[in-house]
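Can anyone check this?
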Amino acid sequence: MATPRTVAFHTLGCKLNYSETSALARLFESSGYLPVKFEDGADIYVLNTCSVTEQADKECKKIVRQALRRQPDAFVVVTGCYAQLKPQEIAGIPGVDLVLGAGEKFRILDYVDDLSKAQGKGMVHAGEVRDVNTFNASFSFGDRTRSFLKVQDGCDYKCSFCTIPLARGASRSDTVENVLANARRIAAMGTREIVLTGVNLGDFGNGTEVIEGTRLKKEALFIDLVRELDTLEEVARFRISSIEPNLLTDEVIRFVADSRRFMPHFHVPLQSGNDKQLRDMRRRYRRNLYAGRVETIKKLMPHACIGCDVIVGFPGETEADFLETYRFLQNLDISYLHVFTYSERANTPAAEMPGAVPVEERRRRNQALRGLSEMKRREFYRLHLNTVRPVLFEQHKEAGLMTGFTDNYIKIEIPAVPEKVNSIAPVVLQGLSDDGETCAAAWEESVLSELA
């Protein structure tokens, strides 16, 4: 019997990319390939790229070099957002054999099965992104106690700094029926928590139009999807990943507050606390709307965790503008920040805007907001000390410990009880770690009696 060809994967970027890489791995495995770890060496390397930041582009080249150091004769395939945006540039990277765009990604086996070194380097199959109009379902599995389930792809928004619509195409979605089926599949594999992901998750419903008589209508909206998922007895927990503030309606917030399965945790991109920057970014809201969303969440769920994305150093952002953003965030009842330093991206309107902020100033502002984020996280954790919260337990990188997240996304550490991994149980939150990233926890009394 012939030895199966091996394939290894490396993912750059967002949760959506991780879900898609897992789907690609399952495609290879179902066709007789043997997935292996990246560091073990493989016959084929598949690199799923991101291009949100300049650093992601540089990372792609580094990973290709690492792959070929491990296996000089390996075939290297690059796909993902960077591959759609700059296919010829990637094809020119030494060692890259094949570049696949957004429309070709899930037909990867059609190209790889006949791949040979004799064909030469740097073959490109990347069609126009406007022709990408199908939805390919995917979910991650195998590396954690949670799974990232893609339910939406692409984006119809035109934010002036963003390349995602150029890389992934128009907004399109899975059907409710198929999402439910995939959620059941994930649960049957033993996963306890599912994180719903998409490029513009709250826009779920685009691309699922059905014909009713002679007119078209959306099959379902995001609120319809989450209500259906909430009925699944097989899944213990759901989380909503990043959702635009204009799409995080009061109806969705009230639903989560009353839900049996959706966790009190929201990640809501802000990007700037200054209305001038929000206008120039072409965002579909202003900061008062954002503040109102936070207020509604905290009114209905005082314990809820709220994360926030912010971009610093956007063209035209003065020191006064930045300080306005800082003060807005300082007074906002949020739990943590993801801070991004603006970087110019080709073919975006922002790249041509006047008022470029010096790179060193961008970095300084980034550090200032990261410091604010640490203070916010510490305060959120402190508010919950000596309270009892349910935790989904995971393996810890250190022997003798387990980690996990509470329902409201507080990361904990607790002495390991191996049989508790991938189970949910209540703990008492006791104290912060020195870096403020985790909370020490102890078993709640009912669990102690069970363990005795």
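Reply from J.R.: I decoded it. The first strand starts at residue 6 and ends at 11.
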